[in-house]
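Entry 14. Structure prediction run on the chain below.
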Amino acid sequence: MNKFNSAYLDFVRLFAALIVFVGHLNYEYLVGSILGVTHLPGFGPDAVMVFFVLSGFIISDVVKKRESALTEYISARISRLFSIAWPALLITLICDQIGQAINPDYYHSAWWFNNSHFIPRLGVNLLLLNQLWFLDVDAFSNGPFWSLGYEALFYAIFVAVGFNIKHRKSTLTFLCLIAGPKILILFPIWLSGYYLYNYVTKIQLSLFTSIMLFLLSIILYITYKSYCDEGLMSSYFTNLVFEKQNKFINSLGHSRCFLDFYFLSSLIILNFLATYNIFKLISDDRMPKMVYKLNRTIALGTFAIYAVHYPIVHCIAAISDFYKISHTFQSNTMMFLIPLIVSVFVTYYGNKIRIPMVKIIKHLINSIWARMT
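Output returned:
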């Protein structure tokens, strides 16, 4: 893809991460009103669907260019997740301990916090197995961490989908049995990004058609958010098929609004299809190097912003509540700035950790493969 397409995807990724961040700050017991807006619609799940489609789209590109070998793919994907997920969990534990030590009442019985069965909870989240089957193991105060459990299994299942390996069908079956229904029901959304890349690189839509598709994706999304409550399509399907709320649907946890997510992902696909064809017509020479590098650098921190902001914000809120400075300019400013500053350090040191991590993983894979053969 050219620089304009790459820059647009980086912008979308950054925007989605900031939407999740700001949406959480908008809770009344945290910052509350932001720029005069007292209630932001539930954009968080929408942003996660953007991440899923975008992830599949980018994987299709990197597999063709840098990770065509299975060893390269596995080591790159594991290191990509764990180099941010593990520091995020460490920060979560530190923030939770500080917050509880200063203001234990703030954490007591909070709906967003769970530290029961500490060791198993930590282990499951460290391995990103927190969403298998009907599990929904919260990462203590780090609510957004749930989606990393989906992403990890998407990467794993893709091994049997995107690579020509031995015993492909049995491997796919085995991985699907490990993942369970919650992850499998959203896997098509991730996979749609993969197939979208293969499609857009082979066709060229006219500029008029591309602009119309882009506008259509925006108009349909605004219409959906204006007139449809969160999960409306999925609730209607549940009531139609089961006549009442079904235990199985409820047990799907973060996947229970799957029909709404399918609809939203179709709009994301439409948007990416349109913009890819629009930017394909623009020469790379028109992209200022400084703008491109700045956009790339900032976008690198999106994963860290998403993964670390929630426990930090709650820790600051607990301290602010204890010292009676909640909803003041000082506490609100700290909630905005500190997570972003921490994200910079997590991104920087995460990339440092990733280099030796890739080497270790490759060595382990080669050792296992040598013993098997």
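The chain has a mean pLDDT of 87.
Filed with the rest of this week's runs.
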